[in-house]
Amino acid sequence: MRIVHTNTVKDAVKNLFIEANFDIGESVFKVIQDSIRKEKSQLGQSVLGKIYDNNILAKKERIAICQDTGMSVVFIQIGQDIHFEGDYINDAINQGVREAYEEGYLRKSVVRDPLFERVNTKDNTPAVIHTSIIPGDKIFIEVMPKGFGSENMSTLKMFAPSAGIDGVKQFIIDAIEKAGPNACPPMIVGVGIGGTFEYASYLAKKAVLRGPDHKHPDPRYRELEEEILTKVNKTGIGPAGLGGLTTAFAVNIEVYPTHIASIPVAINISCHASRHASIEI
Question: Using alpha carbons only, what angle is made at residue 173 by residues 171 and 179, rounded to the nearest 5 degrees?
C-alpha cells in the first residue's frame, strides 16, 4: 500500500488548472498552425491568425487564453493500492481549484444553485469530479476548464437501433451546424456512443480530452471520425462562424457496449480553446 497525502493532489490540481488556462498545449497549437496553411478563406486565415497570436501571448504573459476560464472538470484515476491521508479527497481537489483561480487571477464562473440562487460562489468551486479506481498505486489526474459557450451547444439523443450509422452521422452533423458560431469554432467535437443516458455524456466529455492528434484505435471508428470531420468542414461555418474550411479541428468518438433496444449518442463540443492538462502522481 502506498500512502499519499491529499495535499499532493491539491497542489497538483492547482498547478494543472493554472497551466491549462495559460498554455493551450502543443497538440492544439500545432493544429491551429496547420489550419492556417490549409485555410482558403482570407477572413478565415485572419481569424486563425488572431487565435494563434492570442495563444502565444497567453503563454508568454501568463494570462488566461480566454475570458471564460470555465467550470472546473476533474478526472481522477486512483490506484486501488493508494491510501490517502489528510482531507477528504474531493475537498482537496476543490481547494486546489480555489487556489488556482485565486492565484492565477482567473474568472470565477460558478453559481451556487442552478435555478433559485444564481449567486457566484466566488472561487469557481465546486468542481465537477469524475473518480475511477484503477489497478496499481499511481494517481492520474486530468483537468479541463470547460467554457460554456461551447458547452451550451452540446446535446444528446437516444436512438432506436433502426437509426443505424446514417442516423447517428446525421445527428452529429446537424448538431454542429446548429451550434454554428455560438460554439466559437474551430471546434473539437467529442462524441459518446453507447452505455446509458448519462454514460454517453461522460464518454463525449472524455472524447474531447483526446484532443486533435489521437485518433480512435479501431479503424472503423477512425474512418467514421474522419468522414464526419470532412463533412463538418464542408459546411462552410469556418473560424468564428465567418466562413471557411476550418469548422472543426477534430471529431473524436468514444464507445461503450449498450442495451439491445438503444443507441445513446451524446455530443460535447469544445471551442478552439480546448484546454486540458494532466499529471501522474
Answer: 100
pTM of the model: 0.92
Contacts (Cβ under 8 Å, ≥6 apart) of 37? none
Chain centre to alpha carbon of residue 77: 17
- List the chain domain ranges: 2-20+65-146, 149-274
Report how far residue 279's alpha carbon sits from residue 145's, in angstroms, rounded to the nearest whole number. Answer: 15
Q: Give, for all 281 residues of the chain, the pLDDT tens digit.
A: 899 999 999 999 999 999 999 999 888 989 999 999 998 999 989 999 999 999 999 999 999 999 999 999 999 999 999 999 999 999 999 999 999 999 999 999 999 999 999 999 999 999 999 999 999 999 999 999 999 999 999 999 999 999 999 999 999 999 999 999 999 999 999 999 999 999 999 999 999 999 888 889 999 999 999 999 999 999 999 999 999 999 999 999 999 999 999 999 999 999 999 999 999 99
User: Which architecture characterizes domain 149-274 according to CATH?
Assistant: 2-Layer Sandwich (3.30)
Q: How far apart are CA 77 and CA 114, in angstroms?
A: 28
Evaluate whether 35 touches 246 at the Cβ level (below 8 Å).
yes
Neighbours of 60 (CB within 10 A): 10
Contact yes or no for 251/192 (Cβ under 8 A): no
Rounded to whole angstroms, the Cα distance separating 3 from 271 reads 39
Give SS3 for 41: coil
Please say whether the beta carbons of 130 and 229 come within 8 A.
Answer: no
Q: Report the length, in residues, of the chain.
A: 281
State the DSSP code for 67: S
